[in-house]
Hints:
The structure is a homodimer. Chain A is α/β, with parallel strands linked by helices. Helix content of chain A is 39%, strand content 20%. In chain A, helix 12 links the parallel strand 12 and strand 13 (316-320). At the A-B interface, helix 1, helix 2, helix 3, helix 9 and helix 10 of A face helix 2, helix 3, helix 9, helix 10 and strand 11 of B.
Amino acid sequence: xxxxxxxxxxxxxxxxxxxxxxxxxxxxxxxxxxxxxxxxxxxxxxxxxxxxxxxxxxxxxxxxxxxxxxxxxxxxxxxxxxxxxxxxxxxxxxxxxxxxxxxxxxxxxxxxxxxxxxxxxxxxxxxxxxxxxxxxxxxxxxxxxxxxxxxxxxxxxxxxxxxxxxxxxxxxxxxxxxxxxxxxxxxxxxxxxxxxxxxxxxxxxxxxxxxxxxxxxxxxxxxxxxxxxxxxxxxxxxxxxxxxxxxxxxxxxxxxxxxxxxxxxxxxxxxxxxxxxxxxxxxxxxxxxxxxxxxxxxxxxxxxxxxxxxxxxxxxxxxxxxxxxxxxxxxxxxxxxxxxxxxxxxxxxxxxxxxxxxxxxxxxx
Amino acid sequence: xxxxxxxxxxxxxxxxxxxxxxxxxxxxxxxxxxxxxxxxxxxxxxxxxxxxxxxxxxxxxxxxxxxxxxxxxxxxxxxxxxxxxxxxxxxxxxxxxxxxxxxxxxxxxxxxxxxxxxxxxxxxxxxxxxxxxxxxxxxxxxxxxxxxxxxxxxxxxxxxxxxxxxxxxxxxxxxxxxxxxxxxxxxxxxxxxxxxxxxxxxxxxxxxxxxxxxxxxxxxxxxxxxxxxxxxxxxxxxxxxxxxxxxxxxxxxxxxxxxxxxxxxxxxxxxxxxxxxxxxxxxxxxxxxxxxxxxxxxxxxxxxxxxxxxxxxxxxxxxxxxxxxxxxxxxxxxxxxxxxxxxxxxxxxxxxxxxxxxxxxxxxx
Lengths: 365, 365
């Protein structure tokens, strides 16, 4: 037994935060009244409250130490102990996590990280721009045509919309090779280095095969939906696609962050946890768009994705929505250049995505 | 293109529910302003608001029709379109889903269902009782000893606690054969039919191997955590373990249900969606315990798990927490016999789990 601990900080909204914190520590480790547990389990595997800080007018802050062996050196079990059952209760929000170095080293983490993604797109320092190929319902020809224009305009990353799966209008196995070919042709025609990330969201049994197909077709990585495919799908994609970029999409993860007194702080979920799970870049709803995170929350996500964390590579924050030529100075200033800015509809507005990509690139230089 | 639709009903909290419903329909299908979408996509793949019902003092009810092909006959994509991005926004809660028969037939659904689980445990009609082997930190010998006693007492289902993974105290590959052997021995000694479901929550690459190991060791199925391992993990487990029971645990899924105006109604998530994903039984926090669902919500989950739904087999609701000899009449009356009642600490209180199991079985007959 290592004696090391995983430390979690929770915001607790309760009349009796110390009592509630003690319940959380038991619920998340033993899930059994301590008087019923064998002595060796009480000694080895019971979480303990380190401190509870009452804050007038705010939720209390409770710090809980978990014996590090509880995670079994696995990401999935780390999630179980940090918030598994407590996610079902009100008034408890996970706001910080600290891991021992040995556990961090055992978790997947980003394979490429910021440096690897920059090498893939051939851009050592500037802000990166990405867009989503959409809408679902377009044919492979239409999607390939759109991809060609955007790649020819020099946009760094073309990911598929999370709405694209294996629908009859553009089945995965037909669509992915066509779009990859269009991006390759645009790169050849312009000397560019745009990369293409298909969305992989099929059944679990077919997931590795879809990632392999993407690789063989000439894509440069994949987008994965951990809220649906599971947190382990990020590392699985990296294993099956060596050298490929793994982009995390937040679909179906909003349940955790939308309610202030409950769930997980967005920087912990979209920053720390998805980075530990293996995301090279993590999409989240950017402030000022049509979603509900604040500027402060968004910058905390970016910080959590990039800050030093043992030997885990930093990941790129990818705020979605709201980037435009008008907002470029503000957003660049807020997030800094180690960021992927997702451009949505603005790229298609005006009917000339190539020219729009060129103008956006110029505005964010 | 089929012309069939998937119909979703959302509770919408907004000054302008009709406008918000229209945004949801676009966000969840095209995620692009309609004036920018090609004509064929607008015709084929754009969701449409069917109706918006204002209710004084309550959230409005918006009914949205999605072209059924948007799901691409896949569960993961069905989840994307029902709530993917909207999960990140406030004020929208998914409260009902209706699928066309053809789509339902393409989704996994329970392999065993209620009849199959009843056949496995040899109990054609009565309420089923289950418990969790815990706490984490116990050795394989201790867990096997506890399992023997509980199985000898005749409890129908012994599942592992979601806290058990691959920790040093009882590694998966060592623990599962020992506990399976203990349950087998108890069944031989007493003529019983207790079944054992290990918890499988390892990395994605190792998931099928863990399920296979469980099968080879003589377990009778597995427990899966779809909130962490992904919704597809339920069907994957059923594929790898033919004839094995698949039990869904709600760890890390509470984000969706804990906030009233947001996320997914518990009956849709724990009942309908996990059943469609392949759960033979679905654990949820029962009313009157230490979690926060109401009696009405719990009974709605049970109803959603069991009600007729095209050709999809019914699943067993498995309310967790709160079952005791005292509460048995009330809970049996509320849920009815097609239920798995999870007994927690009460079974271990008093130091004689075998006798406690026998008394609980008698009290729930």
